[in-house]
C-alpha cells in the first residue's frame, strides 16, 4: 500500500465486521501498521492555511445545546467547526443551516454505531490542509481561557516551545448539576455554576488541541497519535502520552465539562449511548460526576454575548 496509505483506510478495515468487539480487535491489529506508514507521510509544508482555529465534534440529538456551543466557540475565535451528525432525530440540521451557509460549519452525516473516531480522523484529514490548530472536543465541553488570553497566542507559546511539539493536552474541569433536576431554557454555561475541586480525579482527563500536520491519526477520543518524533505536552510543558495528566490550577486553558447537566438531561444522554462504543452509561456515572463543591461563575463574562447571539437567557 506504500507511503500513500492513509490512516482512515486502515480504520475502514474494521467496518467490514458488524460485531463491535471483533471490529475493535481488527483495528488494534491494523492501526499500528497504518500509523507506521503515516510516520513518513508528507507534512503538508508550504500550504496556505485558511484558519487559525478549528474544532471537530460528533453529535447526536444536541439540538437544544448546539447553538450556544457554536456561538461560544465562534466568540473565542474559532473559524471552522467540523460537525458530524450521528443519526440525530431532533432536526438539529435546521439549527445548523445558517452556520453552514456562511462557511463556519462543515456538516457531515455519519450513520452507525461507534463512529466517533471515524469522525475525528475525517476532520483531521481536512484540517491538515486548512487549519493551524484543531481542537478535538465534545458538545458538552467548553474550552475556557482562564486568564482571558487570546487562545492562538496561548497555543503558539506551547506549540513553539520545541520543534516537535504537536499538541497541547488540556484538562477537564467537571461541573455538576448545581441541584437541577430538569432542563430549563437557560444557557448551559450560565445555568451550571458549581463544579468539582481541582483535585477531583476525573479532572486529570484531557482533550487535545493539535497541529494537524504533525498528527498521524486518532485512536482515542482524548489523545492523538503523532508522526515520528512529534508529541503532546501539558500546561507544565511535560510530554503526555496518556489520556490524563496532573491538573494544573494555574493553566491558561481548561475545558469546562458539563458532563451531567441536570439529572433528567443525563437520563436522556444515557439513552443515546456512547459515541465510541455500544455501551450505555450507568446512572452511577451521574453520581460520580455530580460534583458541586465549588461555586464558579467565571463563565459570566460570556453571558451578554451569548444571550445576544443565541436569543436565550
UniProtKB/TrEMBL annotation:
Checking InterPro entries in the record gives:
Nucleotide-diphossugar_trans (IPR029044)
Q: A Pfam family this protein belongs to?
A: Glyco_tranf_2_4
Keyword terms, alphabetized = Membrane, Transmembrane, Transmembrane helix
Residue ranges crossing the lipid bilayer per the database entry: 20-40
Q: Which GO terms describe its cellular component?
A: cytoplasm; membrane
A GO molecular function assigned to this protein is: glycosyltransferase activity
Membrane topology summary: Single-pass membrane protein
Q: Where in the cell is it found?
A: Membrane
Predominant localisation class: membrane
Query: Would you say which domain of life the source belongs to?
Result: Bacteria
Keyword Membrane annotated: yes
Entry protein name: Glycosyltransferase family 2 protein
Organism of provenance: Lactobacillus crispatus
Amino acid at each position: 500500500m506504500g507511503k500513500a496509505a492513509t490512516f482512515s483506510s486502515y480504520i475502514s478495515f474494521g467496518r467490514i465486521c458488524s460485531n463491535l468487539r471483533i471490529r475493535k480487535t481488527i483495528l488494534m491489529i491494523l492501526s499500528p501498521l497504518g500509523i507506521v506508514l503515516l510516520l513518513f507521510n508528507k507534512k503538508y509544508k508550504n500550504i496556505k492555511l485558511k484558519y487559525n482555529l478549528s474544532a471537530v465534534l460528533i453529535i447526536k440529538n444536541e439540538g437544544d445545546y448546539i447553538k450556544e456551543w457554536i456561538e461560544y466557540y465562534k466568540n473565542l475565535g474559532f473559524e471552522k467547526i467540523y460537525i458530524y451528525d450521528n443519526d440525530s432525530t431532533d432536526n438539529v440540521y435546521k439549527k445548523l443551516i445558517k452556520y453552514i451557509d456562511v462557511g463556519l460549519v462543515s456538516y457531515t452525516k455519519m450513520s452507525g454505531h461507534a463512529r466517533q473516531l471515524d469522525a475525528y480522523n475525517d476532520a483531521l484529514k481536512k484540517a491538515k490542509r486548512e487549519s493551524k490548530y484543531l481542537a478535538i472536543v465534545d458538545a458538552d465541553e467548553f474550552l475556557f481561557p482562564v486568564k482571558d488570553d487570546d487562545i492562538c497566542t496561548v497555543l503558539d507559546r506551547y506549540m513553539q516551545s520545541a520543534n516537535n511539539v504537536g499538541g497541547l493536552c488540556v484538562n477537564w474541569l467537571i461541573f455538576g448539576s448545581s441541584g437541577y433536576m430538569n432542563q430549563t431554557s437557560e444557557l448551559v454555561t450560565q445555568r451550571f455554576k458549581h463544579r468539582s475541586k481541582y483535585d477531583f480525579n476525573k479532572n486529570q482527563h484531557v482533550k487535545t488541541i493539535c497541529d494537524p500536520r504533525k498528527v498521524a491519526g486518532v485512536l482515542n477520543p482524548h489523545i492523538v497519535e503523532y508522526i515520528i518524533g512529534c508529541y503532546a505536552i501539558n500546561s507544565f510543558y511535560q510530554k503526555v502520552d496518556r489520556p490524563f495528566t496532573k491538573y494544573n490550577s494555574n493553566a491558561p486553558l481548561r475545558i469546562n465539562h458539563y458532563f451531567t447537566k441536570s439529572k433528567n438531561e443525563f437520563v436522556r444522554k444515557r439513552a443515546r449511548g456512547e459515541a465510541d462504543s455500544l455501551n450505555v452509561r450507568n446512572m452511577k456515572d451521574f453520581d460520580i460526576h455530580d460534583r458541586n463543591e465549588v461555586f464558579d461563575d467565571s463563565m459570566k463574562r460570556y453571558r451578554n454575548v451569548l444571550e445576544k447571539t443565541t436569543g436565550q437567557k
